[in-house]
């Protein structure tokens, strides 16, 4: 699945795209088989974009919100020591900023 949010993340007056792409194996898609990538495509003109940076999360992630200053609040999932493969129980709250064309982990 793909979610695209338009947001001027680099404050240059041109809308950019924040893309959350979730990839899952076709035969049995569940939380343990999802890989999520968050990508920043900066606008370079009318309907033209270029990839600036991306971050991949091995088990899955979700953008919960984008602050007015452009910080991404992300939940990333992970396994605890006794978790079955279907059900990662760890939810890590991460904050990313877009600085100098890179996604930077802030916490």
Describe this structure in words.
By secondary structure, the chain is mostly beta strands. The chain has no helices and eight strands. The protein has strands at residues 2-7, 16-24, 34-45, 48-57, 61-66, 72-78, 90-99, 102-105. Strands 1-2-3-4 form a four-stranded antiparallel β-sheet, with no helix packed on it. A four-stranded antiparallel β-sheet has the order 5-6-7-8, with no helix packed on it.
Q: Indicate the overall shape.
A: globular
Low-confidence segments: none
Strand order of the largest sheet: 1-2-3-4
The SSE string, one letter per element, is EEEEEEEE
Q: In percent, how helical is the residue content?
A: under 10%
Mean pLDDT: 91
Using DSSP, what is the number of strands? 8
Number of helices: 0
Largest sheet properties? 4 strands, antiparallel
Q: Strand pairing plus helix content: what structural class?
A: mainly beta
- Cα-to-Cα separation, first versus last residue: 27 Å
What keywords describe this structure?
107 residues, four-stranded antiparallel beta sheet, mainly beta
Q: Can you describe this structure in just a few lines?
A:
The protein is 0% helix and 60% strand.
């Amino acid at each position: 699945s793909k979610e695209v949010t338009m947001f001027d993340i680099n404050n240059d007056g041109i809308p950019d795209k924040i893309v959350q792409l979730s990839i899952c194996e076709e035969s049995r898609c569940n939380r343990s088989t999802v890989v999520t990538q968050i990508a920043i495509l900066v606008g370079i003109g009318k309907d033209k974009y270029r990839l600036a940076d991306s971050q991949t999360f091995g088990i899955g992630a979700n953008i919960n919100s984008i602050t007015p200053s452009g910080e991404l609040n992300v939940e990333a999932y992970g396994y605890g020591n006794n978790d079955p493969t279907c059900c990662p129980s760890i939810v890590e709250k991460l904050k990313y900023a877009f600085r100098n064309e890179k996604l930077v982990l802030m916490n």
